[in-house]
């Protein structure tokens, strides 16, 4: 049965395309790509030669019917973005909604994702977290979004572009307060780096920073909250004096 596969692609290091992703890219009849030139380069690197179809936010009225037509004629399709998972801060949402509505099988293939890579190596709590992605690029809207996240008690993941990192961290400092954070930069690449500190400490050094980056932000911590472990330690201390 013709199937649509959502295939994550490397976020930097080209060896991070899983064997299963490679198999799928080799097997499908058509690859629907965010940017056909970028995907062509990736596929050529792996010696894969496939028909490509441009499929992004600005051409979905044309591209989605083309995908449906291909499925109807019995073709299987891989959907890819420029890096990481399609749909995650990338095109594909409307396509997947349409496919599900039409009861066409959609299969997710595992692979690289910048937010998860950043989260697990950040040192901030990972058990519960929120992926937020990009904040709005208009100041007022961004501040409003941060206001809604202010009391969220778990780690929050943001994507940001280097030319906006300073303004975004400045707004975060104002709205969220000077919390712990980690800036994870150039993941899986030669200049991969984790900067750990408070928002104001990272702000002091971020002007110079280039490349792709994920902000891993500590959740809201109630300062006066009752900490059972600390209370027990205190009782033990007192009982020993
Ligand atoms: N779909 C991708 C995913 O699953 O991670 C995200 C695509 S989004 C358009 C691009 C953003 O992801 C960048 O602006 C940056 O915040 C983050 N990103 C992508 N690659 C990265 C890398 N190698 N290191 C750090 N952040 C990265």
From TrEMBL:
Listed GO CC annotations: cytoplasm
Tetrapyrrole methylase domain location: 3-202
EC number(s) stated in the UniProt entry for this protein: 2.1.1.198
GO molecular-function terms, A-Z: rRNA (cytosine-2'-O-)-methyltransferase activity
Family matches, as PROSITE patterns: RSMI (PS01296)
Catalysed conversion reaction: cytidine(1402) in 16S rRNA + S-adenosyl-L-methionine = 2'-O-methylcytidine(1402) in 16S rRNA + S-adenosyl-L-homocysteine + H(+)
One Pfam family here: TP_methylase
InterPro entries attached to this UniProt entry: 4pyrrol_Mease (IPR000878), 4pyrrol_Methylase_sf (IPR035996), 4pyrrole_Mease_sub1 (IPR014777), 4pyrrole_Mease_sub2 (IPR014776), rRNA_ssu_MeTfrase_I (IPR008189), RsmI_HTH (IPR053910), SAM_MeTrfase_RsmI_CS (IPR018063)
Official protein name in the record: Ribosomal RNA small subunit methyltransferase I
Record-linked NCBIfam families: 16S rRNA (cytidine(1402)-2'-O)-methyltransferase (TIGR00096)
Taxonomy, superkingdom: Bacteria
Segments forming a coiled coil: none
Function, as annotated: Catalyzes the 2'-O-methylation of the ribose of cytidine 1402 (C1402) in 16S rRNA.
Source organism (scientific name): Absicoccus porci
Localisation per UniProt entry: Cytoplasm
